[in-house]
Each structure stands twice: as C-alpha cells, then as structure tokens.
C-alpha cells in the first residue's frame, strides 16, 4: 500500500505494509505479524528509489544524500 503526494517539484511517498512476517520480510526490523498497515521508515538522509514486494520478501534500493 503506497500513498503518493506531489507539490510542485517535490514528491512524498509513504510506504505501508501489513501481513505475516515470520522471517522479517515486512522490513520493520522484527518478525512480528502486522494486521493493520504500518508505515515503513527509512534511515535519515535516505530515500527509496525502488521498492519490490512479494509473498515472502520486501526489498528497497536506497539513495543516500548528504545533509
């Protein structure tokens, strides 16, 4: 589930996940099952440039910026 908001030249994407996470595949840093959408947070100065989700995985490619 993704929420996308655009203003001028800026774009904000909120990435939410829910489901079973017995192997940590949801990307929250644990193996807890979530049955309500939870926002996935990224590290400071990082943005996801590509996200892939499947039955047993979640993957993201990050781009880091200096601030």
Automatic annotation (TrEMBL):
RCC repeats lie at residues 13-64. It holds the Pfam family RCC1. This is Uncharacterized protein. It comes from Arundo donax (Giant reed).
């Amino acid at each position: 589930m993704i929420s996308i908001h655009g203003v001028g030249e800026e774009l904000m994407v909120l990435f939410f996940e829910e489901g079973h996470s017995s192997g940590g595949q949801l990307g929250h840093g644990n193996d807890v099952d979530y049955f309500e959408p939870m926002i996935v947070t990224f590290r400071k100065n990082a943005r996801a440039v590509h996200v892939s989700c499947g039955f047993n995985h979640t993957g993201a490619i990050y781009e880091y910026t200096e601030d």
